[in-house]
């Protein structure tokens, strides 16, 4: 009886943190994203970076489409961040809905967003989608390019994780049929 109680308590203790972590976690690894998009037709994979950033960093044709979450306002400089101001794409939700419809999907589909590092646009875009009724929105942890190395000779370079550094398919130039464009 004592062993049964210990096993039950141990199983419960091990199960609770896993459940709690999964209940609040909307991140998905690049490798698991690749597996999911290959195995399920009920997934919409969106690159949420500004298209100019994609031109300089790279792109994966594994995404269904590029729909920027934050866009660059080249008419306003952010002195504090030392860059152009970013603003939320006012058509983000309607563009996501149109992409779902084009794929024959509905709002119950899994939507996975990916930015450069996962933090400034990836996670916020997935949270924004969830707040707007897309309960299965997730984001790629560490994004396309990954996190910066903090120490050593390669300090500051994004070479430690993310889609690109996981050896997943990517190329230097964007696909003109998938990149966000205002000319069509």
Describe this structure as you would to a colleague.
With 184 residues, the protein is α/β, with parallel strands linked by helices. It contains six helices and seven strands. It has a five-stranded parallel beta sheet with strand order 1-7-6-2-3. Strands 4-5 form a two-stranded antiparallel ribbon. It starts with a helix and ends in a 19-residue tail after the last helix.
CA gyration radius, whole angstroms: 19 Å
Head-to-tail CA distance between termini: 70 Å
* Spatial ordering of strands, largest sheet: 1-7-6-2-3
Overall shape: it is: globular
List low-pLDDT spans. Answer: 1-24
Q: Give the count of helical stretches.
A: 6
For the record, what CATH class applies?
Alpha Beta
Mean pLDDT: 88
Which structural category do the helix and sheet elements fall into?
Answer: alpha/beta
Q: State the helicity in percent bands.
A: 25-40%
* H and E string: HEHEHEEEHEHEH
Tell me the fraction of residues in β-strands, as a range.
15-25%
CATH superfamily: Rhodanese-like domain
- Count of separate structural domains: 1
CATH fold name: Oxidized Rhodanese, domain 1
Strand count = 7
Largest sheet: 5 strands, parallel
Write the CATH architecture name: 3-Layer(aba) Sandwich
């Amino acid at each position: 009886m004592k062993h049964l109680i210990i096993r039950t308590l141990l199983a419960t203790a091990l199960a609770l943190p896993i459940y709690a972590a999964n209940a609040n976690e909307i991140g998905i690894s690049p490798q698991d994203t690749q597996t999911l998009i290959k195995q399920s037709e009920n997934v919409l994979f969106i690159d949420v970076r500004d298209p100019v950033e994609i031109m300089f960093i790279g792109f994966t044709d594994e995404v269904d489409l590029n729909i920027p979450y934050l866009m660059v306002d080249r008419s306003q400089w952010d002195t504090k961040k030392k860059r152009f101001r970013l603003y939320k794409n006012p058509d983000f939700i309607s563009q996501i809905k149109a992409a779902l419809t084009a794929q024959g999907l509905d709002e119950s589909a899994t939507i996975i967003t990916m930015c450069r590092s996962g933090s400034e646009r990836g996670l916020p875009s997935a949270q924004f989608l969830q707040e707007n009724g897309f309960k299965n929105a997730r984001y790629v942890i560490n994004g396309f390019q990954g996190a910066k190395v903090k120490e050593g000779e390669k300090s500051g370079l994004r070479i430690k994780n993310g889609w690109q550094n996981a050896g997943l398919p990517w190329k230097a130039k964007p696909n003109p049929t998938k990149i966000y464009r205002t000319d069509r």
